Amino acid sequence: MAGLESFDMDYQRHRPSRSISEHPFEPQHDVLSTDIIRQQQRNTLLEISKKRDKSVNDSVNKCLKPTCLILQHVVSYPFIVLRRQCQLHYASVRYHIVPFSLIPVVFRLVKSQGISVLWKGFGTVLLIKGVTMAVEAILSEIFDLPKDADSINNSKSFGKHIILKCVSLSIITPFYSACLVETVQSNIASEKTAVYDVFKEGFIRLLQWNCPQKGRMLPVWIIVVPTVIYGVFKCITNILVSKSVKHMLTMYEIHKIRKVCPKSIEYSPSYSDNERLEAVSDLTASAVGDAVLFPLEIIMHRLYLQGTRTIIDNLDTGISVMPILTGYVGPLDCLVTTVEKEGRLGLFKGFGALILQTALIGMLYKFVKITLVKVVDSYSTELQSSSVNTQNNLNNQMSTPEQSRMELADIRPIMRSTSFMM
Length: 422
Fold this sequence. Notes:
Blueprint: H1 9-13, H2 27-75, H3 77-88, H4 102-113, H5 122-143, H6 155-184, H7 195-207, H8 220-260, H9 271-292, H10 294-305, E1 311-314, E2 320-323, H11 331-342, H12 351-398, H13 401-417
């Protein structure tokens, strides 16, 4: 062929071939190094996400315990006032067992007397709770009795704890009676009392422990019996329900964690998790105890106010008042008379206020928890953004922008799946 006569076929046939190792550029090793770096970046992002979620949960849990205390002792107080006034109205036509009948009456009551009508006696109630805690602490130190339910380990310590409750309730009963008067008496038909009046009336009734009955007012030793029974049953109910609810919540946490991370075998709640679980279980136990012991609470409160010449608001209308004029001989007589004259549903007067209280506390707790999670999560995300941007800059140096966006989109669902939300 023309032009190919000088082509040395022998040389081309025996020319040594160049191996891949002779090339200065090694693309296979570079790809392998890039994959390792990407995997390290992926693991780093996952670790950052886990730490952030743990930080969010710890911060939210620390805020939820005081929130539960505020809900239990402050937000629920107006409903406690309404409930007690319904319980004491022995001649009422409306029993307010469901919350719907109570709402228009409360509207008229607030319209005529102002919002303070729902907060009367609030300071006195907190003061008496503080005195109760002080009495229990003193008795616990003197007689070596367990004060907290967490310190109960066996039946002996449980018995000592019940004895402590019985003694402290017996001492505080006269002050409870005087405090109840300030909680339910009408603002428009009663004189305003000072804080020391509660202690004055309480000490007078305490010193007259064995005195015979004067007029309609019952001796202290008679009203101590339902108070101690109510307090002991409330304590036992709170312990049983609280421990049961906490156990169920812990099992639910384990189920959620195993659903996200199937390889997780052991789970031990942190200190902040325990605080949150205890706060929620205490709220639940308080609501269950109030519902179960509602009839006994009515009997106890009616015996407290007998003979005190207290005038309460009439919650049949919300614009009038009525005096408390009863003549019970004791707890059993109060129970029998209430069932005969008011029916069995008379033992559940004002139960609608308890339903409203429980529903409102549950909704507020859920709202506060969701709000705290969003606020703390957004703040933590801002702190994390700098670390993520650093990892993205390194990733952009090793890959194209399209690959970086694809990998980050692939990692984000995993990051959110490791969030142990409550």
